[in-house]
Amino acid sequence: MFGRIREDIKCVFERDPAARNSFEVLTTYPGVHAVILHRIAHWYWTHGLKWLARVTGMFSRWLTGIEIHPGAIIGRRFFIDHGMGVVIGETAEIGDNVTLYHGVTLGGTTWDKGKRHPTLEDDVVVGAGAKVLGPITIGEGARIGSNAVVVKDVPEEATVVGIPGRIVSSPEIDPETHKRRKAFANKIGFDAYGTSQDMPDPVANAIDRLLDHVHVMDNHMEDMCQALKKLGMEVPVVDLPDLGPCEINIREKGEKPKSDTESAD
Is there a cis peptide before residue 164, judged by omega within 30 degrees of 0? Predict the structure, then answer.
């Protein structure tokens, strides 16, 4: 359990640029407090100490504003950012490297006993105020947009927005564009959370366009460096992460980058 708590603290630095040191995270982050107390409450719950588990959960809710039922199953490196108003039901299951923002509800839609809360697979991100309801499955790497209401299964790597939630981006809709944008975003160290060309959000659309533009410029710069090397000039080597097998070159698809005039049109 203590190993998982150390991982929960460490993962904060990967997802919150405001985190400065471990002592600050441990003492001032309510999301971390809620996860630590849940680890303890869940241990009580699974060892038959139901009342003590519920009391621990109630104390956690009073301290952090985050309500996690002791019966919920939570994986490794789980991060709740800000956290106020988060509710996680008894039969919810959360995988590894999952991130929730404030106001998220993982709730049920029935009073029947048994599985009635969502399952979130690894690497899922749920935006602020989103409601994920019922015994549904959110696939690995999926993104749930802020204030979305999701009542149906979501496939892997999909982005869901709106009320009711609808899929606006997934590998099945446009696999080449999705793969290229994700790979390039990983290369430059940017998590394009919740962005989709079809999303009704001008900021998200602008980010997608920017990623496409930077990707084209990256290819042009690489070609220029190769041409300079052929002319005998020395080109400094910049240590950048390689896209590897995920790279998709726009030119391989037969597309030409638009000129400034065409872009303005």
Answer: yes
